[in-house]
């Protein structure tokens, strides 16, 4: 059995360590997971109720077109429903875009520190990958534009960026999309859209109407708290949606995720409250970082990337032994840093206590 030659170059994606694994490995009874940017407040009660009510229909295949969710999401955004495409999480849409538009000899452009699935899916398709260094943790759009040539098919812009949490402004994005050739896809990955509070953040949907080569990705996994059900979506021109439907699995989103997403969408009060609490806890993090003299990137998400002034894996292990799962910057392309999800008030208190104790520890030789 001989797989694609390119597969040998693709690392297996490593999510945050599961809580039960950490308990078993370290003999801990309580573990806090702050590694995968999940919503510490769960999901809307309306979504939970919808899931229970749908349990009697598990023998029936889901609606492959997600018709009811499509209609309601189109109404929510006031867009044509034919501009929507759904995926098993927005990362499946990353895969679908790469499958539909990349091939050997084509070129894809991305930041050098960003969501790793852009690169992995491009490697599988045999595309040339150009990684452009971030500028102070932010996408350098001018430098990315300079890398566009006749072979370029996709430019990825993660906004807010994962793992830095930083944003490109409305003006920067608008000028960039205007300059990118119309035959090159610009994909704005806005997985953390609902957490953003910066007034300079772009309203990208009018740009989709103006530029038929623009794709916007969003998800119900983050602020809506439905990560386990895997429901992401893209907003794009009808032609792009049609192309993605040609590579989409017939039943790629399940019935429970569809009904839960519909009810979660209705409960915007829950989403707003989660964002409000997130900013409160975020400030506790940044206040402590400043007190301890630790650099951090200004985040518009529900996570933050901060300096640990020691090896990232050493810091990761220290937190792990104390019952908190984080993400090592070594795994993210950010040595000397950790990425941590913003938890609830109690989780924040515990994290900051451990942080202070770690900073007080002498560095290992």
Give a quick summary of the entry:
The protein has 365 residues and is an alpha/beta fold. It contains 14 helices and 12 strands.
Content of β-strand: 5-15%
Along the chain, the helix and strand elements come as HEHHEHEHEHEHEHEEHHHEHEEHEH
Helix content: 40-55%
**Main structural class:** alpha/beta
Q: Order of strands across the widest beta sheet?
A: 2-8-7-6-5-3-4
- Main pleated-sheet profile: 7 strands, mixed
Number of strands: 12
Total number of helical segments?
Answer: 14
The Rg value, from CA coordinates, equals 21 Å
Characterize the overall form.
globular
Would you write up a description of this structure?
The chain has 365 residues and is α/β, with parallel strands linked by helices. 40% of the residues lie in helices and 14% in strands. It has 14 helices and twelve strands. The chain has helices at residues 19-26, 45-53, 67-77, 90-101, 117-124, 141-146, 170-179, 205-210, 238-247, 255-266, 268-292, 312-321, 329-332, 345-360, and strands at 32-33, 84-87, 107-111, 128-132, 152-158, 185-189, 214-219, 232-235, 303-307, 324-325, 327-328, 337-341. It has a seven-stranded mixed sheet, sandwiched between helices. A three-stranded antiparallel sheet has the order 9-12-11. β5 (152-158), α7 and β6 (185-189) form a beta-alpha-beta unit. α3 (67-77) packs parallel to α10, α4 crosses α9 and α11 runs parallel beside α14. The chain starts with 18 loop residues before the first helix and ends in a 5-residue tail after the last helix. The relative contact order is 0.16.
